[in-house]
Amino acid sequence: MLGMNDSQLDEFAEYLIRKSMCKDGNAKYYVYWVKNFFREAQNWPPDSWELLLQRYVNALNDNPEIEAWQVDQADKAVRLYFHNFRSGDSSIPKSAAQLTLDDDGCVITNDLLSVIRQALRIQHYSYRTEQTYLDWIRRFLVYVGSCNGCGSENAGDDGSRDGSGRPRDADSGTDLQKKVHITEQLIKDYIAWLALQKSVAASTQNQAFNALLFMARRALNLKMEDLEKGIRAKAGKKLPVVLTPEEVKKVLSFAKGTRELILKLMYGGGLRLRELCRLRTKDIDFDNQLIFVRSGKGDKDRSTLLAESAIPQLREHYKKLRDLHEKDVQAGCAEVYLPDALARKYKSAAVQFGWYWLFPSAQPSMDPRGGKIRRHHISPSVVQRIVRDTAKEAGVEKQVSPHTLRHSFATHLLLNGVDLREIQEYLGHSSVETTMIYTHVVKTMRNRAKSPLDLL
């Protein structure tokens, strides 16, 4: 059973500052997340801290008041507490996270994840991809530990431990640590375990494989020439869920204010969830009726349609944004996050209204990347809830998500005779073959064959 007292939290805060693991002003936030983790864990069945942490992170992600960066900060705080601060405590159930990485390629979670994170950022992978890859690698390490019996039961020959709780060799008195090598076969076994034991979807299996392949090549320098053979799951073609124009109209009628505007922009421009969340005020071109998407999927820019019927409501929304921006300027929290090195290149850009989020969060919060109080953009989970709840209120029985509105946008353009290549550009697809999936949906909505039953 996990244990914690106030004196340990005070020592943890001092430890963070002493080891320069966070800025002095952020230590209290790390302590808060750890304390909150222990409070929540009391309501759950006893388990290793990593599995409890995964449950805790999932609960935070489901909370609309918690921003994505706060979830990441909470995850980091708890891992620092167990991985570093209490790494030698034998009362804590150990998992694969306690493994180490030496020159031979053995696993050490802290160093391994740091190397992978650095490689991802050097190659300019998106922050979302970084989080996803690291999460899969952590799960893989838990699997490795369970397969190799790594944990608190792996003591030395006599089961004794040193003063820090680590296993001690009975003869030499030196630390004895379990070494597990990452091999191509071990990765194959994990992917097979996901498919056979966990019955994950093909897309999930391939996502896990991509993360582990990146780890093997970029962090462990393993040669994996044959790894892709027979491991990638073959996903069958699935038709997207599409609303009829009448259903879209019905859903929009049940939304008001900002909720209605969010739905209109997503459906009217075919925006992805995170593309909508990251829109800034300068990305709207009222004169040409265009929405500019910056650094979309694949780090690509594009322009898409701005519905004329949404413009009056959008202009009213801008008036409210200007008032909110002025209040943030007066409060000293108007500075927003800028990509790459723009904040250094253009000193005042971060506080200019043009860079302000089109849909800002309700409250400013601490940005862990810069250590500043900022107003972040609206949380993707909030937008997902808006779409789901509005469709439910409208009585639409289909499984409606933000991506359903994007599918409906493309399908309805095809129904109205818009060229497939033009739709491809609006959606930001690299290949027209991806866009062609909507032609199959259109066939079912237009020129449908008569059932032989009706001809009897």
Structure description:
This protein has 456 residues and is mainly alpha-helical. It has three domains: 1-93, DNA polymerase, domain 1 (Orthogonal Bundle), CATH 1.10.150; 96-156 and 177-236, Tyrosine recombinase, N-terminal domain (DNA polymerase, domain 1, Orthogonal Bundle), CATH 1.10.150.130; 245-442, hpI Integrase, Chain A. The chain contains 19 helices and five strands. The chain has helices at 6-18, 27-41, 49-61, 68-85, 109-122, 127-148, 184-196, 202-219, 245-253, 257-269, 273-277, 311-331, 342-345, 380-393, 402-415, 420-427, 432-435, 437-445, 452-455; strands spanning 284-285, 290-293, 302-305, 365-367, 372-374. Strands 1-2-3 form a three-stranded antiparallel beta sheet. The protein has a two-stranded antiparallel ribbon with strand order 4-5. A hairpin with a 4-residue loop joins β4 (365-367) and β5. α5 runs antiparallel to α6 (127-148). The radius of gyration is 26 Å and the shape is globular.
Name some characteristics of this structure.
globular; 5 strands; DNA polymerase, domain 1; two-stranded antiparallel ribbon; hpI Integrase, Chain A; 456 residues; 3-stranded antiparallel sheet
Roughly how many Å apart are the termini? Answer: 70 Å
Order of helices and strands: HHHHHHHHHHHEEEHHEEHHHHHH
| Helix-strand category | mainly alpha
Count, helices: 19
Rg from alpha-carbon coordinates: 26 Å
CATH architecture of the largest domain: Orthogonal Bundle
The figure for the number of domains is 3
Secondary structure: helix percent: 40-55%
| Uncertain stretches of 5 or more adjacent residues | 94-108, 150-178
Beta-strand portion reads: under 5%
Query: Strands across the major sheet, in which order?
Result: 1-2-3
Number of strands: 5
**What would CATH call the class of the largest domain?**
Mainly Alpha
What is the multimeric organization of the chains shown? single chain
The dominant shape is globular
Taking the sheet with the most strands, its summary is: 3 strands, antiparallel
